[in-house]
Every structure is written in structure tokens, then in C-alpha cells.
Specification:
two-stranded antiparallel sheet; globular; alpha/beta; eight-stranded mixed beta sheet
């Protein structure tokens, strides 16, 4: 039996090795103009799975799809890219049977902004497999639809208070594309994601690519935090000139902000922690060097954020009783 199975196993490995980038996706709508003569476009991508504090990237993508005219252009073969055992899809159990299996989807959409300008949105789960082929596939689609700039968005947890404007870390394949100052100095070694790898590969190919990571208060990182998506929408608009709607996010952010304020104000300890975070934030904003903030005697951002996170978690548990 082992000898009989070997050729089939070898055939499977050979088929996987011979996969080309264009085997990973299919064009769904062929009516959209393609090639160098097509109108230049921006591509925004939000890939779930690595790090997205406050669900910033996911909420941004959902918001754009919900508020703008859109049509599906291409879909990726998720069976080739997704690890189902690592990130299991959901299914509904109804009394005595299973229903409503929700498969993961990684799609490329054509959207139209409020000024009638078309752009692309790539959204869905981050690929678990075939990263280089995935980058090659995205590059093919970029060339097919004449994309001139690619922008990735997500959220990162930071020791900042929710009562201050959210910061952003910007990065790009060319220094000229980074038009805002970052708080980071020097180099860091970080775990890669499909989105960051994509930016590296596009840069190597001479393509313009950039991204924004919004700084989310890390005591709110596990929750939906619409203010983070609002900051990303504004950043995309500023970088591209796209006219993107933001009122729905603005309204939701205001409601969320009031809810968090009420929870924090209900506890002297939590109020003291947030006040300390505010002191750190204001000191950093007013200092020439971030090193002066790190030398401050105020408790670390991690310690302060952990206290607030624990406090809010306890309140949520009490609300669930």
C-alpha cells in the first residue's frame, strides 16, 4: 500500500511546486478596462490575521464596502492559501443540524469614491501559504489594472490614552512617500506578515507602495475601536486624494468614546491610570526626543495599559452577569 501511495504523494508535491501566481486567483468581472491604457488607480489592502489592534484594518475595509459603490473583480483560491486548522471558519448549529457555514474569502474589489474616482480594495484573511506566489499574483493584478500606488492599513497596540488624537506610523518603498514624522528611531526586527512582505516585493520591483499603522490604546486593542479606522480613512484620503466618506465612523467613534469615558470615570484607579498615560503622551508630544519620555519616572506604558485593560475586562464581565 505504501508503494502505491508514493506516486500520488509525489504528484501532489509536484503540482504544488508548479503553481504559478495566476493559479491563485480568478477574474470574476472582465468588463473593467485593463492594461497601460486603463485609468491609473490606487489599491488599498487590509489582510486579517497578523496584527490589527482595534480591528482597525478590518473596520476600514468593511466601512468602504458598506458606504461606496463596489463590484467584485477577482477572488483568490482560499483553499490554496488558508490554513483551516489554524483559523477555523464558523458554522451555525441549529437544534440538531449544522447550517450557514461561512468560508473565508480573499477578494479584490473595484470601488468608486464620492468624487467618482475608481480604486481597488483587497481584503480578507492573510494567506498562510504561498506568500511569494501571492505577492506575484498581486503584482500581476497591479499591472493588469494599472495600479500606481498600493497602501496597506492595520492597527498596532500602543501605550497611549484614548483621550488623545491617535498617532500613525507611516512606511513606504520610497522616502518621498512618507510625508509624516514617525516616533521610531533606528532599526527593529519584527515578525513579518503577508502585507509587509508584499510591500518589500513591490519595492524590489520598483512599484510604489506604502502603509499606515494606527496607534490603538492597547487596553482597547481587542475590541472594535472605530476611531482607529477613522484615522486610517483620513490618512488614505490625505495620501491619495480619494474622497472617502467618514461620517458613519465619526458617529460610531463618538459613541464608543463616551462609553469608554463612562467606564473609566466610574473608577478612581482607572482614571488615575488614564491620567498617567495622558501625562506620558503630552510629554512625548512636547519633547524634542522620545528618549526624554522613556527616562521619565512615570510607570511604563505597558504597566499602565495593563491596569486599564484589566479594569475594563472586569467591567465587561460584570455587564455580562
Amino acid at each position: 500500500m505504501g508503494i502505491e501511495r508514493l506516486p500520488a504523494r509525489m504528484a501532489t508535491m509536484k503540482e504544488t511546486t508548479m503553481l504559478r501566481p495566476d493559479d491563485l486567483y480568478e477574474i470574476v468581472d472582465e468588463s473593467v478596462a485593463t492594461g497601460p491604457a486603463a485609468t491609473p488607480k490606487v489599491l488599498v489592502h487590509s489582510l486579517d490575521g497578523f496584527m490589527d489592534a482595534g480591528q482597525a484594518g478590518r473596520v476600514t475595509a468593511d466601512h468602504l464596502l458598506e458606504t461606496l459603490e463596489n463590484r467584485l473583480l477577482a477572488r483568490f483560491d482560499v483553499d490554496l492559501l488558508h490554513d483551516y486548522r489554524a483559523r477555523r471558519p464558523e458554522v451555525t448549529f441549529s437544534e440538531d443540524h449544522f447550517t450557514e457555514y461561512t468560508p473565508p474569502q480573499l477578494n479584490l474589489w473595484l470601488l468608486t469614491d464620492d468624487a467618482g474616482v475608481d480604486f481597488l480594495l483587497l481584503e480578507g484573511p492573510e494567506p498562510d501559504n504561498h506568500w511569494n506566489r501571492f505577492a506575484g499574483a498581486v503584482r500581476q493584478l497591479i499591472e493588469l489594472y494599472n495600479v500606481t500606488l498600493t497602501i496597506g492599513v492595520h492597527g498596532i497596540p500602543m501605550g497611549v490614552p484614548h483621550t488623545r488624537p491617535l498617532g500613525l506610523t507611516a512606511h513606504a518603498t520610497r522616502p518621498e512617500l512618507v510625508t509624516r514624522s514617525n516616533i521610531w528611531d533606528g532599526e527593529m526586527r519584527l515578525p513579518a506578515s503577508a502585507g509587509t512582505m508584499l510591500q518589500v516585493r513591490l519595492g524590489e520591483a520598483g512599484k510604489d507602495a506604502m502603509g499606515f499603522a494606527v496607534h490603538v490604546p492597547h487596553y482597547l486593542a481587542e475590541n472594535r475601536f472605530p476611531g482607529a479606522a477613522l484615522a486610517l480613512v483620513h490618512a488614505i484620503s490625505a495620501a491619495t486624494g480619494l474622497l472617502l466618506p467618514s461620517k458613519a465612523l465619526l458617529d460610531e467613534a463618538a459613541v464608543t468614546g463616551r462609553m469608554v469615558d463612562e467606564q473609566v470615570e466610574g473608577s478612581e484607579d482607572a482614571s488615575a491610570v488614564v491620567n498617567a498615560l495622558e501625562t506620558q503622551y503630552d510629554a512625548a508630544a512636547g519633547s524634542v526626543s522620545r528618549k526624554s519620555l522613556l527616562a521619565d519616572s512615570t510607570p511604563s506604558a505597558e504597566e499602565l495599559g495593563a491596569e486599564v485593560e484589566q479594569f475594563l475586562a472586569e467591567l465587561n464581565r460584570e455587564d455580562d452577569k
